[in-house]
Specification:
DNA-binding, about 220 residues, Tetracycline Repressor, domain 2, mainly alpha, homotetramer, 10 helices, Arc Repressor Mutant, subunit A
DNA sequence: AATGAATGAGTATTCATTCAT
DNA sequence: AATGAATGAATACTCATTCAT
């Protein structure tokens, strides 16, 4: 990667973030770098390739970091929470890039054949792995499709954080991560088992009292 | 609503579904209806207004039906499941319209000020109401933000169903609805309370056996 | 002229004055009157005919009044001044209509074949008549084309008053009329004839002095 | 100014002159030059910019020439006559461009903020300078606003020459210039001083006859 | 007199990409 | 690596006028 390519990517990232992909012309990028329009095509085959590379540069380190950090977290629920927190934080720290990916890159015709979709799959598969791990170790129920959990988490975060992306609300990644992790892990129900548990506890208490009396 | 407006909307819905909003020209719509281009503008102020009306016509009956059907379902979990099922079924029955809304209408600049966004808010607020209801009746924990549940469910379904929308996979609304409802309600954890329950059950069993023996 | 026609003309005059001819649609006029678009065409053959009638209604009373008032002014220079004043006052009192005529009606292709051009000719010919009168009575030099005076006066006033029409300056019709009349009548020169006169006066004075001496 | 820009301006000038600004499409211009439509926009930001540049190219040399030639004319009346003649000749030599400026460019909304209006102000201010000069040297009366003279001359010429522009009459710049200059300078009045002069001349004649007799 | 739906031609502008230099 | 001029397709929208009712 020559320095010129880096300059182009930096300019493109700034312009795409600020004005969006559609509203940014190749000339804008070239102008920001200080080269002629045609020069862009010495480094990238198309404007879309520039977009994809901008996104890749944003994505890849996150994947690497996530993979490394997950490996250092023992508890499977904490690993899940970390991935949730990481994603929420991406939305709060880089809202423009998240908007770019979701509202501009993903609706593109060839997105699902692109390297970006692949990156995304690699990234979200980390969460699938965590769920599978939890299932293998008996922490998570194994009658749940890990991919459904993945879609639920990433789709959910997208909606939860979209207000922050569009500047209509603010969120705290830690609070969201805590709440969402708990919701995903323990569910919405006031646990039936808790209810039964209460019943059992009462029964046990009664039995123990009976035994006490019998023993006395 | 004159018959001509209806014709225009039907033609537009078909063309938008088949080819997308951007790839459909006003002339295409007029041609499909069999009128001159300008005639469109006697019924709609702009091409975008046609899109919004197409979406509104799709959305509004769903809201009405959902509201009515929910009222007839007693169990709060069943109400939740119904809303989930309804949304998943929308993605399987009308994938093109869902794609149109998510990939073309929603990324538009003025979407969040549009009537469509409002319709969506009204629609998804049904689920918020269900959750609140569940919390009031003690079925659902009340330490969970109902709006977070709403975002989780609708964002999750979007991701879960997207493969079906883009024709890369198939899904069964009933299966998805069951799985997702259970996941949302009871969570991912092999219930800590279940563990404790198991302990309790065993303890109770032991105690009862003891009493049995003592009584015998 | 039915009341409806009058209503249409009044609405058109207001709209043309406020927004200009091009920016006013037939629908605007019909809407202002409270009738259907097509109704306009029961009263006028075209939008342009409405414009021309609006202008005619503005022009004709001015001509009648000018003709009558001129007849009552004895002095030919005062008649000239009156026509100048009348025109300048039109620009200050009805700047929008003047703008409409000059900037929108006159550049039209068929203007010079229109009734409006004819009205204008009739109107400006009053000034030609005044000049001819002045020439016949020896008040004005007869080696000047009256039509040139006409063009000079009306073209000049147009430029003098244009700043007021476009709201970039203000003018007083009386001041302009006085100054312009004097300029037209007596010209710019510190009179050459005054110089010659001075010479003659001196010569006469010398001759008279001589005669005085001779006679004495 | 590249050769391509020049070609575009030449084609545009011809087409604008022949067919008018409104009736000339950008495609017409591009076709006349032999380039693609988009090429125009590499040289000019808009169709209007092409018009303004066409007018500027016509105007600017005239200003330069006028300024230079005026400097070489000693007599202030001759300088005035020259400016009048120059303007009348513009109308006879370049009637289409004059029509373009007066009937198409000047009625435009943003004309008075354009560079063209500025050029016009610079051009007509030459005449203001001449009048001021004449006033300073005592040739012209100083109780006349030079700007009024400017408006009178240029507005007047516009009307005088308009018949020639629209092909309804022919004019001779020299004749017009002579007549107009004299009218502007000496005015319409059969000079009161002339009258007095006539009286003086008669008196002188009488005196001289008397002297003759006395001497004889 | 009135309606009002329908007509349908007409156009400036953008911009990713190429290629001769 | 770089230039930068050239390409050329592609499209929403307006509105004066008509005419069947």
């Amino acid at each position: 990667m020559s320095g010129r390519s880096t300059e182009i990517l930096e300019a493109a990232r700034d312009l795409f973030s600020r004005n969006g992909y559609e509203s940014t012309s190749v000339s804008d990028i070239a102008g920001a770098v200080g080269v002629a329009d045609g020069a862009i095509y010495r480094h990238f085959p198309s404007k879309r390739a520039v977009l994809y590379e901008v996104i890749r540069e944003f994505y890849e380190p996150v994947i690497v970091m996530a993979r490394r950090n997950i490996a250092g977290i023992g508890d499977v629920r904490q690993r899940l929470r970390y991935l949730i927190w990481l994603q929420v934080r991406a939305f709060t720290e880089q809202p423009e890039l998240c908007r770019l990916i979701i509202a501009e890159a993903r609706p593109m015709e060839d997105y699902y054949e692109s390297e970006i979709a692949d990156l995304n799959r690699r990234y979200t598969s980390l969460l699938v792995e965590v769920v599978l791990d939890g299932q293998r170790h008996g922490t998570f129920r194994d009658d749940v499709e890990p991919t459904m959990v993945r879609d639920l988490v990433y789709g959910g975060i997208e909606h939860i954080a979209w207000g922050a992306v569009t500047g209509r609300s603010e969120i705290d990644p830690n609070v969201i991560a805590d709440d969402l992790t708990r919701l995903i892990c323990t569910g919405l129900d006031v646990s039936r088992t808790q209810e039964r548990e209460s019943g059992l506890v009462a029964q046990v208490a009664r039995l123990e009292a009976l035994i006490d009396r019998m023993e006395s």
